[in-house]
Amino acid sequence: MSNTEKNKIWEKVFTEKTGFVLIVAGFIIIIVTFIAFLFFSRWSFSCILDEEIVAQFGDFVGGAVGTLFALAGVVLYYVALTEQRKDLKINHDNLKIQTDALTQQIEEFRAQKEEMAETRKVYEQQTALFQEQTNLYREQSEAMKKQAEEAKKQTSIYLEEQFDAGFYPILNLICNAQHENDQLIKAINSRIQSRIDKHDDIKQTYDKIIEEYKSQYQVDGEPIGRFFDMITHLVRFIHKASMFDEDKKKRYIGILHSQLNECTNVVLFYHLFSEAGGNEKPLYLQSGFFEDMNFMKRCEFLPLYPQDVYFSLSKFASELSAFIGKSLEKAMSMEGLSSGTDEKISVLGVEAQSQLRQEDDRLHYHLNVRQAEWDKTGLEINDFCQFLTFLLHDVRYVRMFKMPMTDNVISRVDQINDVISFDYSIIID
User: Fold this and answer.
1) Where are the chain's structural domains?
2) Which residues of the chain have pLDDT under 70?
3) Is residue 386 within 8 Å of residue 305, measured between CB atoms?
4) CA torsion angle for 154, 157, 161, 164 (degrees, to 10)?
5) Closest CA to 71 of 127, 26, 108, 109
6) pTM, rounded to two decimals
């Protein structure tokens, strides 16, 4: 019989049930013995105990039952030890499993650590490679940028050379045509100037200008038309030069404008104003062709001031034109002219207070000059008042190729004590 089989037999014998049976048997023996002593011994009920009988009963119970109880204790102790041993074995097995699991986790952590170290090494290598690639890309970008700038510069130079190849030959043709038509242009300008009467109102003046120019154009329209068409062609050529910004375009417009004398510029302006030039007004306005024109050389302004005050009055007119032009722009914008604008302005060398304000649909202009200072100018008040009227109409309408109306600008002159007040209002539309 093997040890395993013996162990199984002992496990079947030494159980809690065996111990319980022994204890029950002990109690049964005690009960049976007690009953036997009562009925079969010399034991009787009395107040005095028979020590001999009691000792015999005790010896029997102690010998027989005590042995059973001792055996039951041994069995139960053995069972307890067996169970404890099993528990210890189970705990030992569980501890071993936990130890193995912990060992496995440690190994996994070690493997993960090694993997993370390898990953970090790869990441560092990739980062270094990426940095090298970034630096290389930056260097390449800088090189390409320089190449692009150089190419752009070369392209710009090439395009400008190509543009110049078309611009300057036409400009030379215009200069030659101007020379050929110089006397005719001067004659037309003189004829228009001869029709101007300083006593006429605004509308009468410009009606005469248009009428006289159309009359002259009917007679000499063919050479004048060809000449002005050449100028218009070159202005359009500049305006459509998409390779240039606005400043560059204005530079070429300035070159063209500088090659035309004052008389040519004046007659060209009347050509467009009278609509003999067709639908080219927007082109000239967008290009800013007449921005540098000396408008005081136009026929309608010449009778309004003595020639000896030309330079002083031109400076005043230029400053006032810019002042009113900006204010009108603001007044017609969404913002409006929320508050009046004040500034000091020089009129023929005399300091005056200039003010602009907006009320309803009109822009009001107010100019104060002291009488003592005004006398230094040598200019009649009525002449200056008319000059201002023409100037305001010019800023607001004529320069935009619009026909002025007599009621567009309302003027009034007052004198209180030693201060002369010029008051004007311009319609904002």
Assistant:
1) 1-152, 181-304, 309-429
2) 1-17, 19-27, 30, 33-66, 68-81, 328, 331-340, 429
3) no
4) 160
5) 26
6) 0.65
